[in-house]
Write a structure and sequence with these properties.
The protein is built from 11 helices and 10 strands. With 346 residues, the chain is of the alpha/beta class. Strands 1, 2, 3, 4, 5, 6, 7, 8, 9 and 10 form a 10-stranded mixed β-sheet that branches. The chain is globular and about 60 Å long.
């Protein structure tokens, strides 16, 4: 009796093991490919686009998130045997640095021709997927529209003393913003400008989230930040007394800088073809909209809805921007960090 039960148990176990093996094989076969994505964007922001790509491309995506600089260093350390396939950054700075080091592969798509040339890589080693604009956000209770600053450079005026906040250099758009000023105005002007801002009581906060909250609460009258933080604050509290300004729009002014969010195929990627399909998907309207909507970004491709258009957000072509390429701005970012890293710390 015991022998029979043992045989029955062994038989059942064999059936169960076979079933598990079949399920594993089926699960593996269910995906056309795999992809490893290194993302400098927060998981909650990039995840909707990842999930949409998995479904549309029949992919299994493994996502690793960290700071863009940390990921760039990791990619360089792994260059002999890359573990990642695709890099998604913030501004073009680290992507351009990796391009110069030969760590990225080229990518071509007819869709890239629809994006203004200033946002594209010199050799298509990285792909611009969305954009963000460096604006002034004001507290409407403290700053009435006729009295609002019209230029970044108005903020050194004594009437703004102790009333201005900005995020630290840990935020790449703070670095890119200064790089744009450096490119347009030169080193001596930019050094004096930063020194004058500090002398006028500029408050350096840890990140842009702290800036938008501090301006909304009335702790500071004006914040130098990215356009979507205005929308994020209104989403968190629709009654926030905020206004948004696109500075330096006069005929002789530099314009308001725009920074592209970038993606790239890592050179030597094990899943290169899946990576190319993924980048193509991010550029297509059905994929790109998840990136645009995820954090109220500006679309670079024509035809996509502009988040926040009803709240004063402007799309490309609706405001003046500097005559600079993303690569020119990126090339100056290391210099900005050397010149101003100690001045713009919390």
């Amino acid at each position: 009796m015991i022998r029979v039960q043992s045989l029955r148990y062994q038989s059942a176990l064999r059936v169960l093991v076979a079933a598990v093996i079949s399920l594993v094989a089926f699960a593996e076969a269910a995906f056309a490919g795999e992809l490893v994505v290194y993302s400098g964007r927060k998981e909650e922001l990039i995840r909707p686009a990842i999930q949409a790509a998995e479904k549309a491309l029949n992919l299994k995506v493994t996502l690793f998130t960290a700071g863009a600089g940390e990921l760039a260093r990791r990619i360089e350390l792994e260059k002999a045997s890359p573990r990642g396939d695709v890099f998604i950054g913030t501004t073009a700075g680290f992507a351009e640095l990796m391009r110069e080091k030969g760590l990225l592969d080229t990518f071509t798509s007819p869709l890239l021709k629809e994006i203004p040339a200033e946002f594209r890589s010199p050799d298509n080693s990285w792909v611009p997927i969305t954009a963000r604009v460096r604006v002034l956000m004001t507290n409407s209770n403290l700053v009435k529209a006729p009295e609002a600053p019209r230029s970044y450079f108005d903020l050194t005026d004594p009437r703004w003393k102790g009333k201005i906040a900005i995020a630290s250099m840990g935020e790449r758009t703070t670095v890119g913003w200064l790089a744009a000023i450096l490119a347009v105005k030169g080193e001596e002007f930019t050094k004096k400008y930063v020194a004058d801002l500090r002398a006028n009581g500029l408050k350096v906060l840890k990140n842009n989230t702290e800036v938008r909250k501090a301006v909304a609460s009335g702790e500071y009258a004006v914040g130098i930040t990215n356009h979507y933080y205005y929308l994020l604050q209104l989403q968190a509290d629709p009654k926030s007394p905020l206004a948004i300004l696109y500075p330096d729009q006069g005929p002789a002014d530099m314009g308001t800088p725009v920074f592209s969010i970038t993606a790239a195929l890592i050179k030597g990627a094990k899943n290169a073809e899946a990576g190319r399909s993924f980048l193509e998907f991010l550029l297509k309207p059905e994929g790109n909209r998840h990136l645009v909507e995820g954090e109220f970004e500006i679309p670079l491709l024509p035809g996509l809805p502009l988040p926040g258009a009803d709240k004063g957000i402007k799309g490309l072509g609706q405001f003046k921007r500097p005559s600079l390429t993303q690569a020119q701005i990126a090339d100056l970012e290391p210099k900005v960090e050397r010149l101003f890293g100690s001045a713009l710390t919390p």
